[in-house]
Design a protein that fits this description.
With 170 residues, the chain is α+β, with helices and mostly antiparallel strands. The protein has six helices and six strands. Strands 1, 2, 3, 4, 5 and 6 form a six-stranded mixed β-sheet that branches.
């Protein structure tokens, strides 16, 4: 929780702020939304929304993800899966029902409709790294390189696999 600092004061959440923040993260992460989460926890929509507005930003999420990745990497059980030197990435294509700036026409995946791609990177110890991207359908290689070069964790990726013809980026 120390990475989710306040936007202005840069203080980490304390006391019940931590619990509100966890509830807000769970609501967003499980795709419930803050309204549904407020109905199922002791915190109001306003409290959850305040936590999101003041504590959850791209840089705080990436720092927390790197900390979590480092914790898993240092855990003895993670060596059963790998040593943190191999990774892969793949996209999940989805139809977009609204006019989105990053949605594209792609007859192969969306027929006559528009869609986008959620691109995620994963290390061999079963942890995500880098920032998930919502992209069009043709620019994946740049996001692979960006995640490999700019993740903040202690992973030392030496080989990366993608589904682009079985190529390995080393």
């Amino acid at each position: 929780m120390r990475h989710f600092t306040h936007l202005i004061s840069k203080d980490a959440p304390v006391g019940t702020q931590k619990l509100e923040l966890v509830a807000a993260l769970m609501g967003m992460g499980m795709n419930l939304g803050l309204e549904k989460m407020a109905e199922s926890c002791p915190y109001t929509y306003r409290q959850l929304s305040w936590s999101v507005d003041w504590h959850i930003r791209e840089e705080t999420l990436l720092a927390a993800l790197a900390s979590l990745d480092n914790f898993v990497l240092s855990a003895p059980l993670s060596s059963a899966w790998g040593d943190g030197t191999t990774s892969s990435s793949d996209g999940m294509r989805m139809h977009v029902g609204v006019q989105a700036a990053n949605a594209e026409y792609n007859a192969k995946y969306f027929h006559v409709r528009r869609g986008t791609n959620m691109y995620i990177h994963s290390a061999d110890i079963w942890v995500p790294f880098g920032k998930p991207q919502i992209i069009g359908t043709n620019e994946e290689a740049l996001y692979v390189i960006d995640a490999l070069c700019h993740h903040e964790s202690d992973l030392h990726i030496q080989e990366h696999y993608t589904d682009t013809g079985g190529n390995t980026v080393m």
